[in-house]
Design a protein that fits this description.
HTH_CRP; Arc Repressor Mutant, subunit A; 7 helices; four-stranded antiparallel sheet; 2 domains; globular; 226 residues; single chain; Jelly Rolls; alpha+beta
């Protein structure tokens, strides 16, 4: 599976943060956030993009009935709020810190455009990353529209494994240490928490997975599940 949410396993913070560029370094600062602090709200002005130096950030929105919908959970080196580069004037989502030590590199849209004009490689990386994010969103929408809940869960677990997992050499299993709660996973795959819990327990009873709060083990026989 191709990585779409990450930029080819490259830490964007190391490449894009303005403090790496001499002409911006003296006037640039980082912002610190605690758990549940909002970085921006829907309807806020889109005048900045953000890079994560450390910590994790939740991106989402609220339905008309007030239900929270999670679009993504991002971590170190990732970019968000990037639609401001493309001309968005107001946010259509919120961004919220979900760790107590989150550090954000804010970049004004004017600075980003200036950097992109001056550096073709920089500009290419930004647009390629945005393209990957749109592909990831399109793929998730297709899953929600055409696949049943179990298939969406299995494909999401494979995606998690690609992003957060590693192989267990002794057993052939794959271990995933991930940042999501069950509520987050249910939202991301478009189902309810009770349905998600039922599906996880079914997979556990079938010896396909084992799971705890922040770890999922995919047994090697998962590849045979359809």
């Amino acid at each position: 599976m191709n990585t779409l949410w990450f930029f080819e396993d490259v830490n964007l913070f190391k490449i894009l943060c303005p403090h790496k560029f001499k002409e911006y370094k003296t006037e640039h600062a980082f912002n610190a956030y605690n758990k549940e602090d909002y970085i921006y709200f829907a309807e806020d002005s889109s005048n900045k993009v953000f890079l994560i130096e450390k910590g994790k950030v939740k991106i989402g929105y609220y339905n008309e009935d007030g239900t929270e919908v999670i679009k993504a959970i991002l971590s170190k080196g990732e970019l968000f709020g990037e639609k401001a580069i493309l001309g968005e004037y107001k946010r259509d989502e919120f961004a919220q810190s979900i760790e107590n030590t989150t550090s954000i590199c804010p970049i004004s849209v004017d600075t980003m455009h200036d950097l992109m004009r001056k550096n073709e490689t920089f500009s290419f990386r930004v647009y390629k990353f945005i393209g990957f994010k749109f592909q990831k969103l399109e793929r998730r929408l297709k899953l929600l529209m055409y696949k049943d809940s179990k298939t969406r869960l299995l494909e999401f677990l494979e995606e998690l494994c690609h992003e957060y997992g590693y192989d267990c050499k002794h057993t052939g299993d794959r271990i995933i240490h991930h940042p999501y709660t069950q509520k987050d996973i249910a939202s991301l795959i478009g189902t309810s928490r009770p349905t998600l819990n039922t599906l996880l327990n079914e997979l556990k009873e079938q010896n396909i997975i084992a799971f705890s709060r922040k770890q999922i083990r995919l047994y090697k026989n998962m590849a045979n599940v359809s």
